[in-house]
Protein backbone atom coordinates (compact mmCIF):
# COMPACT_ATOMS: atom_id res chain seq x y z
CA UNK A 1 0.00 0.00 0.00
CA UNK A 2 1.38 3.46 -0.94
CA UNK A 3 2.29 5.66 2.06
CA UNK A 4 -0.09 8.63 2.56
CA UNK A 5 0.91 11.93 0.91
CA UNK A 6 2.82 14.24 3.26
CA UNK A 7 1.02 17.53 3.84
CA UNK A 8 2.12 20.90 5.20
CA UNK A 9 0.58 22.74 8.18
CA UNK A 10 -2.20 24.06 5.91
CA UNK A 11 -3.08 20.63 4.53
CA UNK A 12 -1.40 21.10 1.11
CA UNK A 13 0.66 18.21 -0.32
CA UNK A 14 4.42 18.73 0.09
CA UNK A 15 6.32 18.58 -3.22
CA UNK A 16 9.85 17.11 -3.20
CA UNK A 17 12.48 19.86 -3.52
CA UNK A 18 16.25 20.15 -3.98
CA UNK A 19 18.15 21.80 -1.12
CA UNK A 20 21.65 23.26 -1.37
CA UNK A 21 22.91 22.85 2.21
CA UNK A 22 26.12 24.77 2.92
CA UNK A 23 27.87 23.55 6.09
CA UNK A 24 26.10 20.17 5.75
CA UNK A 25 29.09 18.37 7.28
CA UNK A 26 28.82 20.13 10.64
CA UNK A 27 26.88 19.33 13.82
CA UNK A 28 23.49 20.80 12.79
CA UNK A 29 23.97 19.94 9.11
CA UNK A 30 24.59 16.27 9.85
CA UNK A 31 21.35 15.98 11.87
CA UNK A 32 19.38 17.89 9.26
CA UNK A 33 20.72 15.64 6.46
CA UNK A 34 19.79 12.55 8.52
CA UNK A 35 16.23 13.81 9.03
CA UNK A 36 15.78 14.77 5.37
CA UNK A 37 17.05 11.39 4.16
CA UNK A 38 15.09 9.26 6.64
CA UNK A 39 11.76 11.07 6.64
CA UNK A 40 11.31 13.12 3.45
CA UNK A 41 11.66 12.74 -0.34
CA UNK A 42 13.83 15.89 -0.68
CA UNK A 43 17.24 15.95 -2.39
CA UNK A 44 20.32 17.46 -0.74
CA UNK A 45 23.37 18.99 -2.43
CA UNK A 46 25.63 18.82 0.64
CA UNK A 47 28.41 21.44 0.59
CA UNK A 48 31.26 21.48 3.13
CA UNK A 49 35.02 21.17 3.44
CA UNK A 50 34.56 18.08 5.66
CA UNK A 51 32.20 15.11 5.47
CA UNK A 52 33.19 12.88 8.43
CA UNK A 53 29.89 13.56 10.26
CA UNK A 54 27.76 12.59 7.24
CA UNK A 55 29.87 9.67 5.92
CA UNK A 56 27.20 7.25 7.20
CA UNK A 57 24.68 8.94 4.88
CA UNK A 58 26.96 8.96 1.81
CA UNK A 59 28.20 5.35 1.82
CA UNK A 60 27.55 2.59 0.83
CA UNK A 61 25.88 3.29 -2.52
CA UNK A 62 23.15 0.78 -1.60
CA UNK A 63 21.64 3.16 1.01
CA UNK A 64 17.94 3.75 0.22
CA UNK A 65 18.52 7.51 -0.23
CA UNK A 66 21.80 7.22 -2.19
CA UNK A 67 20.36 9.07 -5.22
CA UNK A 68 19.05 11.93 -3.03
CA UNK A 69 22.28 13.16 -1.43
CA UNK A 70 25.49 14.31 -3.12
CA UNK A 71 28.53 15.70 -1.35
CA UNK A 72 30.52 18.63 -2.79
CA UNK A 73 33.85 19.33 -1.10
CA UNK A 74 33.78 23.09 -1.54
CA UNK A 75 35.22 25.98 0.43
CA UNK A 76 32.67 28.73 -0.22
CA UNK A 77 35.39 31.38 0.17
CA UNK A 78 36.72 30.62 -3.28
CA UNK A 79 34.85 28.16 -5.46
CA UNK A 80 33.04 29.10 -8.64
CA UNK A 81 30.77 26.03 -8.39
CA UNK A 82 28.73 27.64 -5.59
CA UNK A 83 26.44 29.74 -7.80
CA UNK A 84 25.70 26.74 -10.03
CA UNK A 85 24.62 24.65 -7.03
CA UNK A 86 22.38 27.43 -5.70
CA UNK A 87 20.81 27.73 -9.16
CA UNK A 88 20.17 23.95 -9.29
CA UNK A 89 18.36 24.05 -5.91
CA UNK A 90 14.92 25.33 -4.89
CA UNK A 91 16.15 26.32 -1.44
CA UNK A 92 19.57 27.16 0.04
CA UNK A 93 20.30 26.61 3.73
CA UNK A 94 23.47 28.35 4.93
CA UNK A 95 25.01 26.85 8.08
CA UNK A 96 28.67 27.53 7.27
CA UNK A 97 30.45 29.56 9.93
CA UNK A 98 33.20 29.76 12.49
CA UNK A 99 31.00 29.46 15.58
CA UNK A 100 33.10 28.36 18.57
CA UNK A 101 33.67 31.09 21.20
CA UNK A 102 37.36 30.16 21.63
CA UNK A 103 37.89 31.54 18.10
CA UNK A 104 36.03 34.84 18.43
CA UNK A 105 38.71 36.73 20.39
CA UNK A 106 41.75 34.75 19.16
CA UNK A 107 40.86 34.66 15.40
CA UNK A 108 38.65 37.74 15.11
CA UNK A 109 39.42 38.36 11.43
CA UNK A 110 38.59 34.78 10.38
CA UNK A 111 35.44 35.03 12.51
CA UNK A 112 34.24 38.24 10.84
CA UNK A 113 35.12 36.99 7.34
CA UNK A 114 33.43 33.66 7.91
CA UNK A 115 30.21 35.04 9.38
CA UNK A 116 29.80 38.10 7.17
CA UNK A 117 32.03 38.32 4.07
CA UNK A 118 31.80 34.62 3.10
CA UNK A 119 28.01 34.65 3.49
CA UNK A 120 27.60 37.64 1.13
CA UNK A 121 27.83 35.72 -2.18
CA UNK A 122 25.32 33.17 -0.87
CA UNK A 123 22.78 35.93 -0.19
CA UNK A 124 23.58 37.61 -3.52
CA UNK A 125 23.19 34.42 -5.60
CA UNK A 126 19.88 33.60 -3.87
CA UNK A 127 18.56 37.11 -4.44
CA UNK A 128 19.69 37.34 -8.09
CA UNK A 129 18.33 33.90 -8.95
CA UNK A 130 15.05 34.24 -7.00
CA UNK A 131 15.92 31.33 -4.71
CA UNK A 132 14.66 30.92 -1.18
CA UNK A 133 17.26 31.19 1.63
CA UNK A 134 17.23 29.85 5.20
CA UNK A 135 20.17 31.49 6.96
CA UNK A 136 21.57 30.40 10.32
CA UNK A 137 22.28 33.31 12.62
CA UNK A 138 22.57 33.00 16.43
CA UNK A 139 20.91 33.87 19.74
CA UNK A 140 24.14 35.75 20.43
CA UNK A 141 22.87 38.66 18.31
CA UNK A 142 20.91 39.71 21.42
CA UNK A 143 24.18 39.98 23.39
CA UNK A 144 23.63 40.87 27.03
CA UNK A 145 20.20 41.27 28.66
CA UNK A 146 18.89 44.69 29.69
CA UNK A 147 18.62 43.35 33.25
CA UNK A 148 22.36 42.64 33.40
CA UNK A 149 22.99 46.39 33.64
CA UNK A 150 20.87 46.71 36.80
CA UNK A 151 22.38 46.29 40.29
CA UNK A 152 22.54 42.59 41.38
CA UNK A 153 19.66 42.85 43.87
CA UNK A 154 17.38 45.07 41.76
CA UNK A 155 13.81 43.61 41.65
CA UNK A 156 13.43 44.36 37.91
CA UNK A 157 16.07 41.71 37.22
CA UNK A 158 13.27 39.21 37.87
CA UNK A 159 10.91 40.90 35.43
CA UNK A 160 10.79 38.93 32.13
CA UNK A 161 10.69 42.25 30.23
CA UNK A 162 14.29 42.68 31.34
CA UNK A 163 15.61 39.33 30.18
CA UNK A 164 13.35 37.40 27.74
CA UNK A 165 14.73 37.74 24.20
CA UNK A 166 12.15 38.67 21.54
CA UNK A 167 12.90 38.66 17.82
CA UNK A 168 10.87 41.81 17.06
CA UNK A 169 11.45 43.85 20.22
CA UNK A 170 14.70 43.12 22.09
CA UNK A 171 17.76 45.33 21.52
CA UNK A 172 21.16 43.86 20.57
CA UNK A 173 23.59 44.81 23.35
CA UNK A 174 27.28 44.07 22.79
CA UNK A 175 30.37 44.98 24.82
CA UNK A 176 33.08 47.43 23.66
CA UNK A 177 35.20 46.79 20.54
CA UNK A 178 38.21 45.45 22.47
CA UNK A 179 35.96 42.68 23.77
CA UNK A 180 36.38 40.81 20.49
CA UNK A 181 34.06 38.09 21.73
CA UNK A 182 31.29 40.19 20.16
CA UNK A 183 32.83 40.24 16.66
CA UNK A 184 30.94 37.03 15.85
CA UNK A 185 27.60 38.38 17.11
CA UNK A 186 28.18 41.66 15.29
CA UNK A 187 29.01 39.91 11.98
CA UNK A 188 25.91 37.73 12.36
CA UNK A 189 23.79 40.80 13.09
CA UNK A 190 25.03 42.62 9.98
CA UNK A 191 24.35 39.64 7.69
CA UNK A 192 20.83 39.40 9.21
CA UNK A 193 20.30 43.08 8.38
CA UNK A 194 21.61 42.58 4.84
CA UNK A 195 19.28 39.60 4.26
CA UNK A 196 16.37 41.58 5.65
CA UNK A 197 17.21 44.49 3.32
CA UNK A 198 17.42 42.11 0.30
CA UNK A 199 13.92 40.95 1.25
CA UNK A 200 12.62 44.50 1.60
CA UNK A 201 14.23 45.98 -1.53
CA UNK A 202 14.61 43.02 -3.89
CA UNK A 203 11.97 40.55 -2.73
CA UNK A 204 14.38 37.84 -1.46
CA UNK A 205 12.39 35.04 0.21
CA UNK A 206 14.27 34.41 3.43
CA UNK A 207 14.03 32.85 6.89
CA UNK A 208 16.54 33.63 9.64
CA UNK A 209 17.13 31.07 12.40
CA UNK A 210 18.52 32.10 15.80
CA UNK A 211 19.58 28.86 17.56
CA UNK A 212 19.75 28.94 21.37
CA UNK A 213 22.45 26.39 22.35
CA UNK A 214 21.39 23.30 20.39
CA UNK A 215 23.26 20.31 21.77
CA UNK A 216 23.52 16.57 21.18
CA UNK A 217 25.65 13.84 19.60
CA UNK A 218 28.34 14.86 17.05
CA UNK A 219 28.70 18.37 18.51
CA UNK A 220 32.22 19.65 17.84
CA UNK A 221 35.09 17.28 18.73
CA UNK A 222 36.95 15.65 21.58
CA UNK A 223 40.43 17.24 21.77
CA UNK A 224 43.20 14.80 20.86
CA UNK A 225 40.73 12.18 19.57
CA UNK A 226 38.86 13.64 16.59
CA UNK A 227 40.14 17.20 16.84
CA UNK A 228 43.30 19.10 17.79
CA UNK A 229 44.70 18.37 21.30
CA UNK A 230 44.89 22.09 22.09
CA UNK A 231 41.48 22.91 20.54
CA UNK A 232 38.69 24.35 22.70
CA UNK A 233 35.24 23.22 21.55
CA UNK A 234 31.86 24.43 22.92
CA UNK A 235 30.88 23.63 26.49
CA UNK A 236 29.17 20.26 25.86
CA UNK A 237 32.34 18.84 24.28
CA UNK A 238 34.66 20.52 26.81
CA UNK A 239 32.79 18.97 29.73
CA UNK A 240 32.43 15.59 27.93
CA UNK A 241 36.19 15.59 27.35
CA UNK A 242 36.86 16.31 31.06
CA UNK A 243 34.47 13.54 32.15
CA UNK A 244 35.92 10.99 29.71
CA UNK A 245 39.44 11.79 30.97
CA UNK A 246 38.37 11.85 34.66
CA UNK A 247 39.54 15.49 34.97
CA UNK A 248 37.70 18.24 36.87
CA UNK A 249 35.36 20.33 34.70
CA UNK A 250 36.59 23.90 34.22
CA UNK A 251 34.10 26.59 35.22
CA UNK A 252 34.86 29.85 33.45
CA UNK A 253 34.50 32.85 35.80
CA UNK A 254 32.70 30.67 38.33
CA UNK A 255 30.18 29.16 35.88
CA UNK A 256 27.60 31.84 36.72
CA UNK A 257 26.40 32.48 33.13
CA UNK A 258 23.03 31.01 32.29
CA UNK A 259 22.01 29.12 29.17
CA UNK A 260 18.93 27.32 27.89
CA UNK A 261 19.83 24.11 26.07
CA UNK A 262 17.63 22.44 23.46
CA UNK A 263 18.02 18.90 22.13
CA UNK A 264 19.25 18.87 18.54
CA UNK A 265 16.52 16.43 17.50
CA UNK A 266 13.76 18.79 18.77
CA UNK A 267 15.38 21.76 17.03
CA UNK A 268 15.68 19.88 13.71
CA UNK A 269 11.88 19.36 13.80
CA UNK A 270 11.55 23.15 13.80
CA UNK A 271 13.88 23.50 10.80
CA UNK A 272 11.91 20.87 8.87
CA UNK A 273 8.70 22.84 9.51
CA UNK A 274 10.42 25.94 8.09
CA UNK A 275 11.59 24.03 5.01
CA UNK A 276 8.15 22.57 4.30
CA UNK A 277 6.00 25.60 5.17
CA UNK A 278 7.50 28.47 3.16
CA UNK A 279 4.32 30.54 3.29
CA UNK A 280 4.54 30.57 7.09
CA UNK A 281 8.33 30.87 7.37
CA UNK A 282 9.28 33.41 4.69
CA UNK A 283 10.16 36.87 5.98
CA UNK A 284 10.43 35.56 9.56
CA UNK A 285 13.21 35.54 12.14
CA UNK A 286 12.78 32.58 14.52
CA UNK A 287 14.21 31.96 17.98
CA UNK A 288 14.70 28.18 18.28
CA UNK A 289 15.39 27.08 21.85
CA UNK A 290 13.93 25.55 24.99
CA UNK A 291 13.03 28.17 27.63
CA UNK A 292 12.30 25.39 30.16
CA UNK A 293 15.86 24.03 30.10
CA UNK A 294 17.66 26.90 31.82
CA UNK A 295 20.71 26.26 34.04
CA UNK A 296 23.86 28.07 35.11
CA UNK A 297 27.02 26.58 33.62
CA UNK A 298 27.87 25.36 37.14
CA UNK A 299 24.54 23.49 37.32
CA UNK A 300 25.20 22.05 33.86
CA UNK A 301 28.55 20.73 35.10
CA UNK A 302 26.91 19.14 38.16
CA UNK A 303 24.19 17.50 36.08
CA UNK A 304 26.64 16.16 33.48
CA UNK A 305 28.87 14.77 36.25
CA UNK A 306 25.95 12.91 37.83
CA UNK A 307 24.61 11.57 34.52
CA UNK A 308 28.05 10.54 33.25
CA UNK A 309 28.69 8.56 36.41
CA UNK A 310 25.40 6.69 35.85
CA UNK A 311 26.12 6.09 32.16
CA UNK A 312 29.75 4.99 32.57
CA UNK A 313 29.38 3.15 35.88
CA UNK A 314 32.37 5.09 37.25
CA UNK A 315 32.16 6.99 40.57
CA UNK A 316 32.02 10.81 40.29
CA UNK A 317 35.36 12.61 40.76
CA UNK A 318 36.32 13.74 44.27
CA UNK A 319 37.00 17.23 42.90
CA UNK A 320 34.36 17.49 40.15
CA UNK A 321 35.10 21.06 39.04
CA UNK A 322 37.61 23.90 39.29
CA UNK A 323 37.23 27.62 38.64
CA UNK A 324 39.29 29.29 35.91
CA UNK A 325 39.30 32.91 34.80
CA UNK A 326 38.02 33.67 31.29
CA UNK A 327 41.38 35.34 30.52
CA UNK A 328 43.21 32.13 31.37
CA UNK A 329 40.72 29.91 29.48
CA UNK A 330 39.91 31.99 26.39
CA UNK A 331 42.52 34.78 26.43
CA UNK A 332 42.26 38.57 26.24
CA UNK A 333 39.04 40.06 24.86
CA UNK A 334 36.59 37.39 26.06
CA UNK A 335 33.20 38.45 27.39
CA UNK A 336 29.95 36.53 27.88
CA UNK A 337 26.18 36.51 27.46
CA UNK A 338 24.66 36.53 30.95
CA UNK A 339 21.32 34.82 30.24
CA UNK A 340 19.48 33.52 27.17
CA UNK A 341 15.74 32.85 27.41
CA UNK A 342 14.05 32.67 24.00
CA UNK A 343 10.60 34.15 23.55
CA UNK A 344 8.58 31.49 21.72
CA UNK A 345 5.59 33.55 20.52
CA UNK A 346 6.57 33.83 16.85
CA UNK A 347 7.61 30.21 16.28
CA UNK A 348 4.50 29.00 18.16
CA UNK A 349 2.19 31.19 16.09
CA UNK A 350 3.77 30.54 12.68
CA UNK A 351 4.77 26.88 12.98
CA UNK A 352 3.11 25.55 16.15
CA UNK A 353 6.52 24.23 17.28
CA UNK A 354 7.49 23.47 20.87
CA UNK A 355 10.55 21.61 22.20
CA UNK A 356 9.86 18.35 24.03
CA UNK A 357 13.02 17.01 25.64
CA UNK A 358 14.08 17.87 29.19
CA UNK A 359 17.70 18.78 29.92
CA UNK A 360 18.15 15.61 31.97
CA UNK A 361 16.89 13.37 29.13
CA UNK A 362 18.91 15.08 26.42
CA UNK A 363 22.10 14.90 28.49
CA UNK A 364 21.41 11.27 29.28
CA UNK A 365 21.17 10.29 25.61
CA UNK A 366 24.05 12.56 24.58
CA UNK A 367 26.44 11.32 27.28
CA UNK A 368 25.49 7.72 26.48
CA UNK A 369 26.59 8.49 22.89
CA UNK A 370 29.80 10.23 24.05
CA UNK A 371 30.75 7.29 26.27
CA UNK A 372 30.01 4.70 23.56
CA UNK A 373 31.89 6.70 20.90
CA UNK A 374 34.96 7.92 22.80
CA UNK A 375 35.64 6.05 26.08
CA UNK A 376 37.79 3.31 24.49
CA UNK A 377 39.78 5.75 22.31
CA UNK A 378 40.49 7.95 25.34
CA UNK A 379 41.63 4.94 27.36
CA UNK A 380 44.06 3.99 24.58
CA UNK A 381 45.30 7.57 24.16
CA UNK A 382 46.00 7.84 27.89
CA UNK A 383 47.77 4.45 27.98
CA UNK A 384 50.05 5.34 25.02
CA UNK A 385 53.57 6.25 26.25
CA UNK A 386 54.59 9.81 25.29
CA UNK A 387 57.26 9.69 22.51
CA UNK A 388 60.69 10.71 23.83
CA UNK A 389 62.29 13.70 22.07
N1 LIG B 1 24.89 24.72 17.53
C1 LIG B 1 24.34 25.78 18.05
O1 LIG B 1 23.80 25.74 19.15
C2 LIG B 1 24.33 27.09 17.33
C3 LIG B 1 23.99 28.21 18.07
C4 LIG B 1 23.94 29.44 17.44
C5 LIG B 1 24.20 29.54 16.09
N2 LIG B 1 24.54 28.44 15.38
C6 LIG B 1 24.81 28.62 13.95
O2 LIG B 1 24.38 27.47 13.22
C7 LIG B 1 25.30 27.20 12.16
C8 LIG B 1 25.80 25.76 12.24
O3 LIG B 1 26.37 25.54 13.51
P1 LIG B 1 26.97 24.13 13.97
O4 LIG B 1 26.80 24.08 15.43
O5 LIG B 1 26.46 23.05 13.11
O6 LIG B 1 28.51 24.39 13.67
P2 LIG B 1 29.61 23.45 12.97
O7 LIG B 1 30.91 24.12 13.13
O8 LIG B 1 29.47 22.07 13.47
O9 LIG B 1 29.16 23.47 11.44
C9 LIG B 1 29.56 24.46 10.52
C10 LIG B 1 30.02 23.77 9.26
O10 LIG B 1 30.32 24.76 8.28
C11 LIG B 1 31.46 24.34 7.56
N3 LIG B 1 32.12 25.51 6.96
C12 LIG B 1 32.65 26.58 7.63
N4 LIG B 1 33.21 27.43 6.75
C13 LIG B 1 33.05 26.88 5.52
C14 LIG B 1 33.44 27.28 4.23
N5 LIG B 1 34.14 28.41 4.01
N6 LIG B 1 33.09 26.49 3.18
C15 LIG B 1 32.41 25.35 3.38
N7 LIG B 1 32.03 24.91 4.58
C16 LIG B 1 32.35 25.67 5.65
C17 LIG B 1 32.35 23.68 8.62
O11 LIG B 1 33.31 22.81 8.02
C18 LIG B 1 31.31 22.96 9.47
O12 LIG B 1 31.14 21.62 9.03
C19 LIG B 1 26.39 28.26 12.27
O13 LIG B 1 26.10 29.30 11.38
C20 LIG B 1 26.30 28.77 13.70
O14 LIG B 1 26.72 30.10 13.82
C21 LIG B 1 24.63 27.22 15.99
O1 LIG C 1 35.03 24.27 29.60
C1 LIG C 1 34.19 25.21 29.54
C2 LIG C 1 33.63 25.70 28.35
C3 LIG C 1 32.71 26.74 28.38
N1 LIG C 1 32.34 27.28 29.56
C4 LIG C 1 31.31 28.35 29.61
O2 LIG C 1 30.09 27.77 29.17
C5 LIG C 1 29.25 28.75 28.54
C6 LIG C 1 28.79 28.23 27.18
O3 LIG C 1 29.90 28.13 26.34
P1 LIG C 1 29.82 27.57 24.81
O4 LIG C 1 28.92 26.43 24.68
O5 LIG C 1 31.22 27.34 24.38
O6 LIG C 1 29.26 28.79 23.96
P2 LIG C 1 28.30 30.05 24.18
O7 LIG C 1 26.98 29.61 24.68
O8 LIG C 1 28.99 31.06 25.02
O9 LIG C 1 28.23 30.61 22.69
C7 LIG C 1 27.65 29.82 21.66
O10 LIG C 1 26.25 30.08 21.68
C8 LIG C 1 25.73 29.89 20.43
C9 LIG C 1 26.87 30.04 19.44
O11 LIG C 1 26.55 31.15 18.63
C10 LIG C 1 27.07 28.89 18.49
O12 LIG C 1 27.09 27.70 19.18
C11 LIG C 1 28.14 30.15 20.29
O13 LIG C 1 28.69 31.40 20.16
C12 LIG C 1 30.08 30.03 28.51
O14 LIG C 1 29.69 30.81 29.61
C13 LIG C 1 31.52 29.56 28.69
O15 LIG C 1 32.30 30.55 29.33
C14 LIG C 1 32.88 26.80 30.76
O16 LIG C 1 32.56 27.29 31.86
N2 LIG C 1 33.80 25.79 30.70
Automatic annotation (TrEMBL):
<dbReference type="InterPro" id="IPR036291">
    <property type="entry name" value="NAD(P)-bd_dom_sf"/>
</dbReference>
<comment type="similarity">
    <text>Belongs to the NAD(P)-dependent epimerase/dehydratase family.</text>
</comment>
<dbReference type="GO" id="GO:0048040">
    <property type="term" value="F:UDP-glucuronate decarboxylase activity"/>
</dbReference>
<keyword id="KW-0456">Lyase</keyword>
<keyword id="KW-0961">Cell wall biogenesis/degradation</keyword>
<dbReference type="InterPro" id="IPR045869">
    <property type="entry name" value="Arna-like_SDR_e"/>
</dbReference>
<keyword id="KW-0520">NAD</keyword>
<dbReference type="InterPro" id="IPR001509">
    <property type="entry name" value="Epimerase_deHydtase"/>
</dbReference>
<dbReference type="GO" id="GO:0033352">
    <property type="term" value="P:UDP-D-apiose biosynthetic process"/>
</dbReference>
<dbReference type="GO" id="GO:0042802">
    <property type="term" value="F:identical protein binding"/>
</dbReference>
<dbReference type="GO" id="GO:0046982">
    <property type="term" value="F:protein heterodimerization activity"/>
</dbReference>
<protein>
    <recommendedName>
        <fullName>UDP-glucuronate decarboxylase</fullName>
        <ecNumber>4.1.1.35</ecNumber>
    </recommendedName>
</protein>
<dbReference type="GO" id="GO:0071555">
    <property type="term" value="P:cell wall organization"/>
</dbReference>
<dbReference type="GO" id="GO:0005737">
    <property type="term" value="C:cytoplasm"/>
</dbReference>
<dbReference type="Pfam" id="PF01370">
    <property type="entry name" value="Epimerase"/>
</dbReference>
<feature type="domain" description="NAD-dependent epimerase/dehydratase">
    <location>
        <begin position="19"/>
        <end position="289"/>
    </location>
</feature>
<dbReference type="InterPro" id="IPR050177">
    <property type="entry name" value="Lipid_A_modif_metabolic_enz"/>
</dbReference>
<dbReference type="GO" id="GO:0102765">
    <property type="term" value="F:UDP-D-apiose synthase activity"/>
</dbReference>
<keyword id="KW-0963">Cytoplasm</keyword>
Amino acid sequence: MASPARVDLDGNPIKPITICMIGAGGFIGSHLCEKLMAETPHKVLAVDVYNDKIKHLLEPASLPWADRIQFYRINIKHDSRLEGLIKMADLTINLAAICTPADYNTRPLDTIYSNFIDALPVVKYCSENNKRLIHFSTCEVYGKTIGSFLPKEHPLRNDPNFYVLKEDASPCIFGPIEKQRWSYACAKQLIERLIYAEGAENGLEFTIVRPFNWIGPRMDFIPGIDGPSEGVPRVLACFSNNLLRCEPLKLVDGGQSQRTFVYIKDAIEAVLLMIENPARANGQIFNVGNPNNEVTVRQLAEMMTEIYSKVSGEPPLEVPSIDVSSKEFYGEGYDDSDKRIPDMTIINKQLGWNPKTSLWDLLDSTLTYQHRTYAEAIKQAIAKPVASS
